[in-house]
Protein: DUF1128 domain-containing protein
Amino acid sequence: MDLSKPSQENVEYMIEGIKNKLKMASAAAMQASAFSVEQYEDIQDVYEVAMGSDRLSISQVEALVSELGRLRKK
Structure:
């Protein structure tokens, strides 16, 4: 998948990847459709942090989830 080009499909791909990596208990509440291409670069940053670590600390998971919450459409 070419993540260098902003698209809703890429946003959805990255959100699903982040949810899987974080093993979010409330993953159903974090639907990819709740995110906009307008925040593409920020979502990509979160995705790269999440995918770049073999293991994430609890504080890292909390920070990433918090950032995703900030990026969701209102």
Observations:
- The radius of gyration is 11 Å.
